[in-house]
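Inputs:
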Amino acid sequence: MSKVATGHYFEDFHVGMQLPHATPRTLTEGDVALYTALTGSRFAQHCAVPFARGNGLPAMPIDDLLAFHVVFGKSVPDISLNAVANLGYADGRFLDLVYPGETLSAQSEVIGLKETSSGKTGIVYVRTRGFKNATTPVLDPVLDYVRWVMVKKRDPAAPAPAPVVPELPAVVDAARLARPTSLGRLAIDPARSGSPFFFEDYEVGERIDHVDGATVTDAEHRMATRLYQNTARVHFDDHREKGGRLGATIVYGGVVISLARALSFNGLGNLLHLLAINAGTHANPCIGGDTVYAWSQVLDKADLDEDCGALRLRLVATRNRPCADFPSRDDDGRHLPCVLLDLDYWGLMPKRAACVSK
Amino acid sequence: MSKVATGHYFEDFHVGMQLPHATPRTLTEGDVALYTALTGSRFAQHCAVPFARGNGLPAMPIDDLLAFHVVFGKSVPDISLNAVANLGYADGRFLDLVYPGETLSAQSEVIGLKETSSGKTGIVYVRTRGFKNATTPVLDPVLDYVRWVMVKKRDPAAPAPAPVVPELPAVVDAARLARPTSLGRLAIDPARSGSPFFFEDYEVGERIDHVDGATVTDAEHRMATRLYQNTARVHFDDHREKGGRLGATIVYGGVVISLARALSFNGLGNLLHLLAINAGTHANPCIGGDTVYAWSQVLDKADLDEDCGALRLRLVATRNRPCADFPSRDDDGRHLPCVLLDLDYWGLMPKRAACVSK
Amino acid sequence: MSKVATGHYFEDFHVGMQLPHATPRTLTEGDVALYTALTGSRFAQHCAVPFARGNGLPAMPIDDLLAFHVVFGKSVPDISLNAVANLGYADGRFLDLVYPGETLSAQSEVIGLKETSSGKTGIVYVRTRGFKNATTPVLDPVLDYVRWVMVKKRDPAAPAPAPVVPELPAVVDAARLARPTSLGRLAIDPARSGSPFFFEDYEVGERIDHVDGATVTDAEHRMATRLYQNTARVHFDDHREKGGRLGATIVYGGVVISLARALSFNGLGNLLHLLAINAGTHANPCIGGDTVYAWSQVLDKADLDEDCGALRLRLVATRNRPCADFPSRDDDGRHLPCVLLDLDYWGLMPKRAACVSK
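Outputs:
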């Protein structure tokens, strides 16, 4: 029997299958420093202990996306090692903050299967759950999302399973958004957070060009992807990929999400936390040397509490294309070739009531 | 109103203006490890807890330059986002050591303004102060320096302010140098510190070629600059800069300072701390791929205490040019094109009385 | 007297010479995060506190190779700054686990000397020892190995010393392998460790292609090498090396060892710790841009305890050459040009008795 894991193929999955993922991961201040160095994120809740404590937190939580990428990374060897494409995300929710010293583990459940018309691949729908503090008898859920991927069949002649396509919400209902339980009364000093804009200042439909660009090199995207322990080969092996479709390794889509979120600080500086991922598409591949730009649009607003609300945001990232004119889709509704990411999410935005000036 | 910060232009500043800077930053062991990996610094005070404790410190302090770069980085969005050039430093003092777990914040005061003859830009002089432990009612000053930058006018027709040029000392007077208060009696084992040379061994006028070279890649200088949360665009956006003056992103000057200081270990291995920055010029731009070399000259010596003194040093860094012949200026007094940095600083050097051999 | 260390030359060494190395180094969670980001290692003992505690450890130990590289790095300024080649390793043993917060120091003893026939260089044999917790009166040995390097003579006319070539074991005898004392009863959940294979599943002679490739860029190998505070010039100075033999800086051999060990997770996922280095050769140089592949062969097995044994493994790393056919040597017994590393080591592998399923 071969000692080497080669991942699951389409015919290896069945609906209801539970896949506990390997290698729990204790997050530390070291991971936080690398996340800062690799993304340039400046959201104050993840930069300064006093700022986090000022909002009632016991310590400085790690970035929600760092937790997301680590959970995602765990799922790769079992779900997407033989994937052709990562097709989409839905129904994602951030359920609890993660602190340095806590350990993340992950498990996925197959919730849908559908062979493609070619007969050579199939779409696998999984709900992946991240937990923390893996030693306690009851695991504490941290985040939870659905993604679907196109996976190769090992044997094109293998029979197609009965198609099961899960019903997924187009948007996470605002009533299901959870304000992090450890968050106390918010107290945001705009001179410290870096933004004078609060929930009331954003209007549905409003678009924001985040102006700055961030070039990503091979060294940087690979260090990030290894930090997340994502093992997908297409990110790491120049020798193999230089003969492939792109002629280069592809940047893990999560690296683009994190760069775009970091760029969005300039315009959304008080958006403290991610609450939900409604939908997401990696529209085109990003490779080393590309410069990432981003813009956001406010899609919706929802009241959460007396001191904060939720903004539903569309975050679009592009490659080598500044976003002053908000590039997105062509006349046929297809994403432009410059578009890397089209992400629909809910984030927590403090209200003016949370504003303090010192 | 635009949500996106675009920084101040020359006519936005007035003398006496106070600018509290955003995003306090808690420094951690993660930042220390990255600083080591990105600079190669080997000064034992910042490498080993037992060494630091042997000198009376409660813990291993972070590198003085890491603190400097973080404070500098905070000031960029408010001071130099629209700068054409960073012209100089003066009257900088390191006032206290910073330890992992402490939080830095920064504030600047405009102390001078002078429109340039072109009428399109002006020189802004600021004194920037870094503080630690932002939650306490009284902030603890960590460092303090003056820099002046040439900043664009938004509207070239805006009237020139009355010129105010601050009087700045050419050198920080040795009487104003502060031995870090937490430093106890020094006990330096040369076999551990890596250098057998003490205060008495250095002579005024002496020059030291630091011999080694350090090539800096785009990935490395950008990771460092993001670690310091310096947001100046010119460091990050290849797409924009490839059409610019250099055809490449420029390396943050502080990266060069840190590389040169790390190279200077070979020759100045016992120089435990920076005490003051007298003057400094980024003479020419550094870009990814350049190899940095450095040399030092002892400009002055001052007695500090029974176990240590201060060396006033000139630190010159070059690009792609070894320093065996101490390259510096041409016959007209202009810096040679290979010179990146010309820095004049005071550092703390133990005396022979501090030497212990185990 | 020059302030700049230029390293020892062949005629500076004598048999019995003790060389205490400079700059003790406190390892932290920051170093661990960087090691993960730079190598992609996923061995669960070094990734998750609960996993390590489940095996009786008080905390999550740092990777054995991270400790090795730091100890090796300390020895470079005194042993190999003027080395032409790092010829081999023997009789290496890992004696204790290292935890974040502990401080490593190192010392070498010259155990052999032999001038080469050219008269311009000589071979220096040293035993290097790594210790932890440098402040305590009695140092705790962490690892111990012999290496030999070819070192330049300062003066080719210097007389040759009487040749002393130490007798070194071809293999560390299994009776000398030390199970880490802090290791309690092992409890390995294969769903967490990432591998279902235990000691009993491996057969002597068995070969494993580790399948994946890892491209190493200049930024990555230099960050790793600086993290280890290895100061050998050939890794850092593009300006000098572009005119050298390779036309590029050479990757520190330890970077290749770590990448190969990380790749070997796929096939040897439960190999918790390194116990000994029997022999090792850096067969050919690796440069930035190379993609590293690896394969392993089980050379021997030894019983250690009721819940674990030792596997003697050969780990071969190649450049730009997948390892499905286990490339190694040509018909004349010479390493193929694609072979970077040929390492012979003992590792600790849990038995089936240690397997728990949750």
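Remarks. Chain B touches chain C through 51 residues (CB under 8 Å). The domain at 10-159 of chain B is CATH 3.10.129.10 (Thiol Ester Dehydrase; Chain A).
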